[in-house]
Amino acid sequence: MNRKLYDKLIFEYSHPGRCGFSLPANRYDRHIDELPESYRRSETPALPEVDEPTVVRHYTNSSTNNFGVDTGFYPLGSCTMKYNPKINEQLAASPSIACLHPLQPTATVQGVLELYWQLQRALCEIGGMAEFTLNPFAGAQGELTGLLVIKAYHLSRQDAGRTTVLVPDSAHGTNPASAAVAGFKIVEVASPPDGTVDVDDLRSKLDGSVAAMMMTNPNTVGMFEKNIPQIAELVHSAGALLYYDGANLNPMLGVARPGDMGFDVMHVNLHKTFSTPHGGGGPGAGPVGVRKGLEMFLPNPRVMRLADGRFDVVSTDSALGRISGWLGNFTVFVRALAYILTLGADGVAKVGPLATLNANYILNKLSDLYELPIPGPCKHEFVFDGLKDKSTGVTTLNVAKRLLDFGFHAPTIYFPLLFHESLMIEPTETESRETLDSFIEAMRQIAREAAEDPGLVKNAPHDTPVSHPDDTEAALHPLTTWRDLCETPM
Ligand SMILES: *Cc1c(COP(=O)(O)O)cnc(C)c1O
Q1: pLDDT of residue 282
Q2: Does 280 have pLDDT greater than 70?
Q3: Which of 170, 172, 216, 273 to mutate to test the pocket of ligand 1 (most atoms within 8 A of CB)?
Q4: Which atom of ligand 1 is nearest to the CA of 272?
Q5: How many CB atoms lie within 10 A of CB 95?
Q6: Residue identifier of the C-alpha nearest atom 4 of ligand 1
Q7: Is 214 near ligand 1, meaning CB less than 6 Å away?
Q8: Cβ neighbours for 404, distance < 8 A, ≥ 6 positions apart
């Protein structure tokens, strides 16, 4: 590994006696005897002994080893890595929000509850739903919550035989996983070559055992499900409900609403569509919306506006129990509502069309060199099946790694599973024409290199601090502490 001076681990700079601070005398030293012996340290902790400039340079340089949406273009398909406006962060960090205590009496946090309620109403308006809960912490937890609502609905009708959930073969992996966690059996629905749901296959699988059909629309290959009215009709006449995976609601903003298409239950990812930071496992939020007639099954507790205009946190008997602590990730809600209010209705309505325009622009500028298995136009994202010229042996993984040398984050690769060399690109609406053009030029350059000097692409990246980690080893045996590293030869 080729490491620059400040690329070391902080412990590696340690020199006995070096110091970057001086603490005032310990005022509590004279009370030390009051602390039981077993609570006291017998040895000084093994901390790195370093001077202040080294610490500052080390952490400042480390912070640039990561790639984020603030560092560069991040066209990760099925993930909506849009720019997060900084005003959202300022609001979320303001002391009147950051210093709240979750157990404060509701009378002292009326403004906070109003914010919560306003976001619920905004999402109802955007999704065409009657009611929303903001409680789930992630998209996958939203799916689980939505499926539990569906289960509660069937059980409330004494319809206990509905044990299966239909999932298209193009679905995001969390769909079948959530259905399994909710205790359902999963039945897959096939996709014809255009990636949309095969209505005949769906019809053959619908019977009295089906609790719900889960759909993503536009689906995970970026195609709009044109047969949605027919699908909704089929699913409903079989007594099942239609679930909308709105993790990536982005292309729909300002264009269409799941509720108007016949969906009964949906979730959205605030950490994708509504510009709250995303990645590294959270914090996120996967609010769940339901159509009229299902509100009473949403999980406890709920934020409601009372008849006298006050806001309260309410729990009811018909509802699901708690699915998360407190009321979910509150600062994520602050950011999402700030985003919606700063854009306003007009701005929100431009998001979907602009994201779609950007995706089609890239698709059209690259489809001579990259294999486009499903012809455009696409919605907010699309999939290439690797390079057109497969004779060079350059794979989608190689292309993704080479992009890092050009300062771009890789698109999503090897998903969806419908193609061998999937390269899924989602530019979002926040990127400028210049950014899209330089990404297109990098992709074209990589295609040229693949033909002329395939080794250059296959050995990429060349300029990153780490180039070819063993992904499997890293997942199975992550080294998370300094001691792990000492014990493992590097
Ligand atoms: C991201 C995503 C999910 C899961 O969301 P998490 O917050 O990661 O749990 C579900 N469905 C689709 C289509 C997604 O893109």
Answers
A1: 64
A2: no
A3: 172
A4: 1
A5: 7
A6: 139
A7: no
A8: 67, 410, 460, 461, 463, 464
pTM: 0.88
DSSP per-residue letters across 439-484: HHHHHHHHHHHHHH-HHHHHT--SSSS-----HHHHHHS---SHHH
Residue 278 alpha carbon to ligand 1 centre in Å: 11
Domains, in order of start, for the chain: 1-37+46-65+466-490 (no CATH), 86-342 (3.40.640.10), 349-465 (3.90.1150.10)
Distance 2 CA to ligand 1 centre (A): 36
What are the pLDDT digits (tens) for 306-351? 999 999 999 998 888 999 988 999 999 999 999 999 999 999 999 9
Residue ID of nearest Cα to ligand 1 atom 5:
139
Kindly report, residue by residue over 177-197, the tens digit of the pLDDT.
999 999 999 999 988 877 789
DSSP state of 414: S
Pocket flag, ligand 1, residue 422 (CB < 6 Å) = no
- Ligand 1 geometric centre to CA of 170 (Å): 13
pLDDT of 2 above 60: no
> Using a 6 Å cutoff on CB, does residue 78 contact ligand 1?
yes
User: Which amino acid does the sequence have at 333?
Assistant: F
Helix 433-452 and helix 396-405, axial crossing angle in degrees, nearest 10: 120
Tens of pLDDT, residues 203-216: 999 999 999 999 99
Distance CA 362, CA 433 (A): 10
Q: What whole-number distance in Å separates Cα of residue 414 and Cα of residue 295?
A: 38
Is the pLDDT at 159 greater than 80, yes or no? yes
